[in-house]
Structures are given as structure tokens and as C-alpha cells.
Automatic annotation (TrEMBL):
Residues 97-311 form the Radical SAM core domain. PROSITE patterns: RADICAL_SAM. PANTHER family: PQQA PEPTIDE CYCLASE (PTHR11228:SF7), RADICAL SAM DOMAIN PROTEIN (PTHR11228). Keywords: Iron, Iron-sulfur, Metal-binding, S-adenosyl-L-methionine. This is Radical SAM additional 4Fe4S-binding SPASM domain-containing protein. It comes from Anoxynatronum buryatiense. It holds the Pfam family Radical_SAM. GO terms for molecular function: catalytic activity; iron-sulfur cluster binding; metal ion binding. Coiled coil: none annotated. CDD domains: Radical_SAM (cd01335). One of its GO terms (biological process) is heme biosynthetic process.
């Protein structure tokens, strides 16, 4: 079936002067590499938008929130984020990066919720970085050419200095923030926008008030999330409703109701995440009832593709598709990085393996060391594969120390690139 929304958006891009200039600029950056040609360029752009619903926001096109909007300055930051200033295309398709595509900063471990699948409740130190320390980290990340900087937690909106931290992220990177919707008044949403925030992810677990509130252990959570969606949209942010889709909630009818609810309340996009074997889930006994199998992921991907044909729905994206072998793969430590509230650098939000602390060494040095250990993008979720080993070796003392983290990383490097990379190599 032809996706008319996508056809329409591609036609708009084809006559959009800003988009045309962006496509020409991209081509000129990459054409100095002898491995690059027009056919590879077409294949690269086609692969990026495969399975996606393209959205336009403030003159820029969101192809996939895995990468910055096109043709933003941060989009070109991402292209240039390689180890050497030549043969950029070759370095990109073999994962030889100077920085992660995205880095998420847990600016606090504090949170008013107590979610059943939370990855941040175990092993968190009380000490948190100051705003000045986070601003220094952000500067270093941007100088490395990190193209997306996400502020997360815990609940980042419990910090009164959150606007100061957001403001430190300049146009070289896309600024995101992830929240339960806690205290996101219209005034605060506008202040975030004024200080440079591009997009916001607001947790919405279910179309059902009771289901959402049960997951969050808070009777106010559902109404708070809907109000936050509305306020964020009115403030001019790119609004994402983020859902950890439990295995029991993977029915098409249930999810379509969620998509409609999110869209009706202001969401441009619904991101479907899956429960990860981390945090509180490590203590669960009935994991087969919680964690996905291959059939569950296939079902979710099919729902994503069908939903993206529905004109009235927001853009739908799934962890199951975006980070699968068929697309970009798992970016733990290679395309993505995470810094805990106390400053430890992890491969991703769900993998408590510390490769050092940014208060003791530069994030650039720590990233280079971690990236060398983690290798190339993986074809399956790294956290699902190794977290039992991580927690067993840590014996309750998280995060795992650098020596044992390095050993696990080296022993689990991928021998195969995800499809996006393979197609261009």
C-alpha cells in the first residue's frame, strides 16, 4: 500500500528551498569520499526514511528521532562526527565516530513516581552533579560533535535550575527532555522552549487512566501527562508521547486507542519502548510475562507500519524497529551514551556499566575508551543480552566498575552490522 502521507511530505521536501539546500549541503560534505556516489546518497536517504512517517516542525523534517531533524545544524553536526576530517562517508558507515549520535544526561535520580519497570531505582548514588558541572559536560559533548543531548532522570523537572542546563545546549545539538509531565505548566513549557529546547518526551503508558496510574504508582499521573502534552504542544515544542508497552498491552485496538488519545492531546509522535531487563525488573520472577520475544517485536513493528498509514495519527515509532537489525541496531556505547546523575558514563540508560566518571576525567576521553571497547552497532539489545551478568558480577554494588565493564564489552562486540550500515558498505 502506498503511504500517501509520506508521498506528500517527500513532495513538499522536493520543492522546499531550505530542504533542497540541506540535501545539496549533505552531498557536498560526503562527496569528497571516493566511496560515496549519487547512488549511495539515494540509498542512504531512502534507508533513513524506510518505515517512518515524516513530520514537519518549525521548518524542519523529523524523519526519525533516532537522529536530528533535517536540515538542522545538529543534522550536519551528526554527519561531521567522525574521527578524521576526510572520508567522512566511509567512517560513518563503519561506525567510526568522534561522538555518540545521542547522549542522555540523567540530571537527577529523584522522581515522584515509582514505575514498575524503572531502570533508575537500583544502585543510584545520592550525589548529583551541579548545574555548573553539567554545563561543562554539555560543552565537551558539543565540542566532540554530539548531535542530540537528552535530559532525563529520575524526573528532570524537579530541578529548579533545569532551564539553565537546557540553555547551555546550543544549536549544534538538538536539545530534548524526558519527563513524566511532572509540574509542566504552560509557563514552564514556554520557558523551556525559550531556552532552546526542541522536543520533549512525555510518558503516557496507556489510554486507560487506571492502567497508567497503576504503572506509575500515582493516581494523578494520567491527568498530569495529558495536561503536559497539551502545554508542550501549545508552547511550540515537538511533542512525543513515550510509552513502555507492556507485553499484555500489545493489541492493535489498545494501541490505536493510545495513538488517538496522544494525538488528540497534542503529541506529534508516539514512541513505543519495550521493558528492558534492568533496574527493578531484575528482581521480577515472571519475566516471560513482561519481556518481549521475536513474535512480540514483529507484531509491534507491523502495528507501527499500519498506524503510520493512518493520516489522523501522530508519527509512530518503535524501539523494536528503530534499534533492530533491520534498521539502525542497538547503539549502546557506539551511537549512544548515558551519564548518570553522579557522573558515571554508561553505554546506555539501561546498562549500569561505568567506564569512568566525568568529574574525574573528560567525557571525550571516557567516550573514546568506551567506544573502543563496545566496538560497532549491535544487531540486538545489549542490555537484554548482558544485564544478568552485570548485576551478578556487581553483587549489589552498582554501577559495575570499569575493569569488569571493559571485560564484558570486549567479550560482546558485534561481528555483524545492522542493515542500514550493511546496505551502504
Amino acid at each position: 500500500m502506498v503511504n500517501m502521507h509520506k508521498v506528500t511530505m517527500l513532495m513538499k521536501m522536493a520543492v522546499d528551498k531550505k530542504a533542497i539546500k540541506g540535501m545539496i549541503k549533505t552531498y557536498r560534505i560526503l562527496k569528497e569520499d571516493q566511496a560515496f556516489n549519487l547512488m549511495k546518497y539515494v540509498k542512504m536517504m531512502t534507508s533513513m526514511q524506510k518505515g517512518e512517517k515524516i513530520m514537519k516542525h518549525e521548518g524542519e523534517y523529523i524523519i526519525s528521532t533516532f537522529m536530528p531533524s533535517f536540515p538542522s545544524e545538529s543534522f550536519f553536526t551528526n554527519i561531521r562526527a567522525v574521527k578524521e576530517p576526510k572520508d567522512i562517508f566511509t567512517q560513518q558507515i563503519y561506525g567510526k565516530r568522534s561522538a555518540p549520535i545521542s547522549s542522555y544526561l540523567s540530571v537527577t535520580h529523584k522522581c515522584p513516581n515509582n514505575c514498575v519497570y524503572c531502570s533508575a531505582k537500583i544502585g543510584q548514588a545520592e550525589k548529583e552533579l551541579t548545574a555548573e558541572q553539567w554545563i561543562r559536560v554539555i560543552k565537551d559533548l558539543q565540542n566532540m560533535k554530539t548531535s542530540i543531548i537528552g535530559l532525563t532522570g529520575g524526573e528532570p523537572l524537579v530541578r529548579e535550575d533545569i532551564f539553565e542546563i537546557v540553555k547551555a545546549i546550543d544549536q549544534r545539538s538538538t536539545a530534548m527532555l524526558f519527563t513524566s509531565g511532572f509540574n509542566l505548566t504552560l509557563e514552564r513549557a514556554r520557558e523551556l522552549k525559550k531556552n532552546g529546547l526542541f522536543s520533549i518526551g512525555i510518558s503516557l503508558d496507556s489510554h486507560d487512566r487506571e492502567g497508567h496510574n497503576h504503572n506509575r504508582s500515582d493516581e494523578r499521573a494520567f491527568d498530569m501527562a495529558l495536561t503536559a502534552l497539551q502545554n508542550a504542544r501549545q508552547a511550540g515544542l515537538y511533542v512525543m508521547a513515550q510509552t513502555v508497552a507492556l507485553k499484555t498491552n500489545l493489541g492493535k485496538d489498545q494501541l490505536f486507542k493510545l495513538f488517538k488519545l496522544a494525538g488528540d492531546n497534542g503529541a506529534h509522535e508516539v514512541k513505543l519502548l519495550e521493558p528492558i531487563l534492568s533496574g527493578k525488573l531484575l528482581n521480577e520472577e515472571n519475566l516471560d510475562q513482561i519481556l518481549y520475544n521475536a513474535a512480540n517485536r514483529k507484531k509491534l513493528i507491523d502495528i507501527q507500519h499500519k498506524a503510520n498509514q493512518v493520516k489522523e495519527f501522530p508519527k509512530i515509532s518503535t524501539f523494536a524497529y528503530t534499534e533492530s537489525e533491520a534498521k539502525f541496531g542497538c547503539g549502546a556505547g557506539t551511537q549512544h551514551a548515558y551519564i548518570s546523575a553522579s557522573g558515571d558514563l554508561y553505554p546506555c540508560d539501561f546498562v549500569p556499566m561505568s567506564f569512568g566518571n566525568v568529574t574525574e576525567n573528560s567525557v571525550k576521553t571516557l567516550w573514546q575508551e568506551m567506544n573502543a571497547v563496545m566496538g560497532t552497532p549491535k544487531i540486538g539489545c545489549f542490555a537484554q543480552k548482558i544485564n544478568k551478568e552485570v548485576y551478578r558480577k556487581a553483587q549489589g554494588n552498582l554501577p559495575l566498575d570499569k575493569e569488569r565493564s571493559t571485560e564484558i564489552g570486549l567479550n560482546n562486540q558485534s561481528e555483524k552490522f545492522p542493515q542500514y550500515y550493511r546496505a551502504l558498505q
